[in-house]
Amino acid sequence: MYDVIFIGSGHAAWHGAQMLAKAGKKVALVEANKVAGTCTNFGCNAKILLDGPAEIIHHLHHYHGIGIEDTPAIVWPALMNYKHQVIDPLSDGLAHMLAVDGIEIIAGHASFVDPHTITVNGTQYQADKFVIATGQTPAKLDIPGKEFTHDSTDFLDLPDMPKSIVFIGAGYIAMEFAAIAQAAGSHVTLVEYGATALNGFDADYAAHVVSEMQARGIDFVFSNAVASVEQAGDQFVVSTAQGQHITADYVMDSTGRVANIDGLGLDTIGVDYNRQGVLVNEFLQTNLANIYASGDVIAKTIPRLTPTATFESNYVASVILGNEQPIAYPAVPTVAFTLPRIAQIGLLPQEAELENCQVYEIPCGKLMRFQAQNDVHAAIKVVVNAQGQLVGASLIGDFTPEVINALVPVINDQYTAAKLATTIYAFPTHSGVVLPLIAKFLA
Ligand SMILES: Cc1cc2nc3c(=O)[nH]c(=O)nc-3n(C[C@H](O)[C@H](O)[C@H](O)COP(=O)(O)OP(=O)(O)OC[C@H]3O[C@@H](n4cnc5c(N)ncnc54)[C@H](O)[C@@H]3O)c2cc1C
Ligand SMILES: NC(=O)c1ccc[n+]([C@@H]2O[C@H](COP(=O)([O-])OP(=O)(O)OC[C@H]3O[C@@H](n4cnc5c(N)ncnc54)[C@H](O)[C@@H]3O)[C@@H](O)[C@H]2O)c1
């Protein structure tokens, strides 16, 4: 009998498992695939590793005409080899770390038998409490020829870069992978059902990312729903309901992700869920009192990201250890690692008017620190409420991943203009230049 069993071993599981084990609880994780879950094995980490050379080439392009003319080529098989060297050992490394903490790992697919019992490979395990942390899996369009489409996990393991790729969708995954594939020499087309890419980001900045990608030769087909994929010799023809046909060597379905709840036995024990995932209350508790959920598998409006999964994992553990406060999320920053990068935290500029807020834009490209990289289109929009507090920011440019983190405390701790003006930042840095400029918009 365990105190707590987590189903899944991603960020939504292992952080909380460690907290509980350190508090003396008997804890196990059940994992059907690789220990450590999506982010580590098939998501953020593998993606950012393959993005590394593409990011450098993107920076070098800024110097065309002002000092650097040649663009180096990416040797994809060597890069993929490096990805395997770095990423493949991480799963065993985490398993070892968890074992040192006394956390048992049960390999296999878990299914509930009753609210206190699961079965894994024919063996039953009982626990006082369970945490469903099974994440999401790539969605697959149910269309003729779906057997020819690949998913993000396949792309992140490609031994060679195909000469041409069609990405279905223009969300986070398609846009990030398209940038990598183009930099590695592939001819890329994105076919998107909606009229725009990167929903959830500032509309102007998302459009600018698209225009820069188009300038590098990436094709976009908007307002088209992919209806079929047909094989044509060694290639594939992607056809849309609107009558477009695009031929490519490789087709990736990047139309979103769905909750991993198949075969989990939720109907057997009566845990409520919908198409978005497992339903929870403000304590991340399902309708069965001893069963919680954490991470991507939850039906939620909070972004499904690694830091939110980690936050929820730690929160569930604290509830199990006696915390009686409902979950309170701080502002959640998010970055799409496109080229150029784009980022968002808090209110979007397009939501500002409804919330009685003002939007101010800082075009950063003319600031010396940004001119040093010739990042001419870099910019920030800040959303300030009626009390003069920062409540949102949208960023575009190569500097965004680090600057958005610097804005997190400005929002969460409601920095005043005086607080910013009396803070000393290292110089010349991007955040050190931008943050003092934001002070003039705050009370
Ligand atoms: C390509 C890609 C890139 C991404 N990039 C970023 C990024 O840059 N930044 C960011 O913040 N987020 C990113 N994300 C999102 C991030 O990976 C997820 O938000 C995060 O991994 C969610 O963690 P989780 O623990 O909830 O789920 P997961 O990490 O998916 O873990 C769930 C685990 O449960 C296991 N499982 C499922 N069902 C069962 C069962 N019945 N029995 C046993 N085990 C089971 C699965 O095998 C899986 O290992 C990316 C995602 C993808 C796909
Ligand atoms: N940098 C990051 O933090 C990061 C990176 C990658 C993934 N993620 C996470 O993974 C999630 C999933 O990413 P995603 O890009 O797969 O999903 P997404 O929801 O961001 O984008 C899917 C896109 O596919 C389009 N689409 C759906 N059906 C279509 C059809 N039939 N034809 C053409 N287009 C169609 C949708 O309109 C949408 O724009 C993200 O929401 C995020 O939570 C985060």
What does this 3D model show about the protein?
Helices cover 33% and strands 24% of the residues. With 443 residues, the protein is an alpha/beta fold. The radius of gyration is 23 Å and the shape is globular. The strands form six sheets. Strands 1, 2, 3, 4, 5, 6 and 18 form a seven-stranded mixed β-sheet that branches. Strand 11 (226-232) and strand 12 (235-240) form a beta hairpin. It folds into three domains: 2-138 and 258-320, FAD/NAD(P)-binding domain (3-Layer(bba) Sandwich); 146-255, 3-Layer(bba) Sandwich (FAD/NAD(P)-binding domain), CATH 3.50.50; 340-439, Enolase-like, domain 1 (2-Layer Sandwich), CATH 3.30.390. Helix 3 packs antiparallel against helix 4 and helix 12 (400-412) runs parallel beside helix 14. It has 14 helices and 23 strands. It has helices at 11-22, 37-42, 44-61, 76-100, 152-155, 172-183, 203-215, 266-269, 306-320, 349-352, 368-371, 400-412, 417-421, 430-438; strands at 2-7, 27-31, 104-107, 110-114, 117-120, 123-132, 136-138, 164-168, 187-191, 219-221, 226-232, 235-240, 245-248, 250-253, 257-259, 273-274, 277-278, 291-293, 334-336, 342-346, 358-363, 379-384, 390-396. The chain binds flavin-adenine dinucleotide and nicotinamide-adenine-dinucleotide (NAD). Flavin-adenine dinucleotide binds next to helix 1, strand 2, helix 2, helix 3 and helix 9. Nicotinamide-adenine-dinucleotide is lined by residues 141, 168-174, 176, 191-194, 199, 225-226, 254-257, 303-305, 334-337.
